[in-house]
Amino acid sequence: MPSLAHGANRPLEKYRDYLRLLAHVQLDHRLQSKLDPSDVVQDTLLKAHQALDRFTGQTEAELAGWLRTILANVLMDAIRKFTSKGRDVNLERSLQAALEESSSRLEKVLAAEGSGTGERDRRQDQLLRLASALAELPEDQRRAVELRHLQGCSLAEIAHGMDRTKEAVAKLLLRGVRKLRERLHEPTRD
Questions:
Q1: Alpha-carbon distances, residue 92 vs 44, 48, 76, 85 (angstroms)
Q2: Distance of alpha carbon 114 from the chain centroid
Q3: What are the pLDDT digits (tens) for 102-160?
Q4: Which of 42, 116, 137, 164 shows the greatest Cβ crowding within 10 Å of its Cβ?
Q5: Which residues, other chains included, contact 168 with Cβ-Cβ below 8 Å and sequence gap of 6+?
């Protein structure tokens, strides 16, 4: 496989939904009225494009990790801008760790086996497809799936946060996961 850094014409755009999902999950609900995850992702992709010649990774998984690091930095800058917090190294580390945890939870949703480079790249491609499929879900289903599978919330916590019954949340999750499976089993659209 050619180096991603040298074959740098690989589009970063395919990571947009993946990054938006991670940004949305990590963005404090109090800031969501001031800061749109799409704007954060746009800034992330711009910074990544500007620094792409410095990317030294070889795989799609390494590229995704590099993009998550840039996303964490952009989110920290945005948090500083809209709050009174100055630079907080612990907050920066916890945000980076939270992004990694969300990405790891996404991988667990896919439950892919294997650890070779080809398998990691295939899983990364599946992660991108999952993020795109999530973005296509109706808002209430998407939110329920994110809270359950990316943030690890219980049904009771989700029900409280969404102002619904546990039964209603369970149905949202069932429909959302069913739609995700259908979309993920469709042939890829290139």
A1: 16, 19, 7, 11
A2: 21
A3: 666 666 655 544 455 566 667 777 788 888 888 899 999 998 998 888 888 899 999 99
A4: 137
A5: 159
- 17 to 13, 49, 96, 103: CA distances (angstroms): 9, 16, 18, 13
User: Higher confidence at residue 152 or residue 168?
Assistant: 168
Pick 119 or 181 by higher pLDDT.
181
State both tokens at 163.
């102002």
pLDDT band for position 8 (50/70/90)? very low
Q: Among 75, 66, 9, which Cα is nearest to 42's?
A: 75
Q: Amino acid letter at 170?
A: A
At 35 the three-state DSSP class reads coil
Output the six-digit token pair for 130. Answer: 């999952």
* 11, amino acid identity: P
Residue boundaries of the structural domains of the chain: 1-136, 138-190
pLDDT at position 164 is 95
121-133 burial string, b = 16+ CB within 10 Å, else e? Answer: bbbbebbbbbbbb
More confident residue, 174 or 86: 174
Does the domain spanning 138-190 belong to CATH 1.10.10.10? yes
